[in-house]
Amino acid sequence: xxxxxxxxxxxxxVDDPDDLxxxxxxxRRGRPAPGELVAELRRRYEAIGGSxxxxxxxxxxxxxxxxxxxxxxxxxxxxxxxxRDVFAELVDRGIRRVVLxxxxxxxxxxxxxxxxxxxxxxxxxLACVPAWGGRADLTAALAARIxxxxxASPDAERTLIIMTAHSLPRFVIAAGDPYERDFxxxxxSVAVAVRARVAREVPTLVAFQSQGMAGPAPxxxxxxxxxxxxxxxxxxxSARVLFAPIGFxxxxxxxxxxxxxxxxxxxxxxxxxxxxxxSLNADDDFVDVLAEVCRPLLRTxxxxxxxxx
Length: 309
Prior knowledge:
With 309 residues, the chain is of the alpha/beta class. Helix content is 45%, strand content 15%.
């Protein structure tokens, strides 16, 4: 049996809506969640029938394990199963080396910091996958889904693609976080790949979605937000908007509610029809990408703080 394992880590979600208050408190770094915020989030989770994120990540872990022949576990940064608990369980099973693969390819450093503390507590040797949002194979997988959806559009010539990622407070970017720069570079690469697939120019915009929950004080967030992007699409004369949430890898509340319900309604208010490119979820080509992301680090984890190879 190998003494190495892979841990896929995401932001996290809850399976039981009764856990939302505690989950949001974790998101807010220990600040209790206002009751009205928890009630609104519960309404959103119920509107989509609950988040499928944990289930998708478990499927992805199982498929990646079969592909690479090593144990693969799924963990969350902000809710159960927590990274520290997954590390402890792996140690109990004889695992000594862990490759951490954050399922947020433009924010791997945030996950590495958290995992580094868990590694010190549990004694595992840790290597963390570096930022991988600009990989050519990931770009190709995203572009393939967008191009297929675009070509199926009844009004493809008047369709505008809006590529989205989760927003961050601007003070995080001002402090030097590369998230916005890296995401915009990835969006441009995906746009180029889509144009190559459909053999014509296609208008695109970038938007940052799902602002909120960071704290009580007024916060300036990365934009444009969804409303601003949809206003820009209408001003361009677009008849249809195709959302491509390329900053996310799986279906969850920010995709299934914030886009498929809220953004769809906002598009209709502006006289435009709505479509969305499918998420990668646990599809074959995404398993291929993750295998190539993780394989080089499987034999290089060593004692010490989390490393970006």
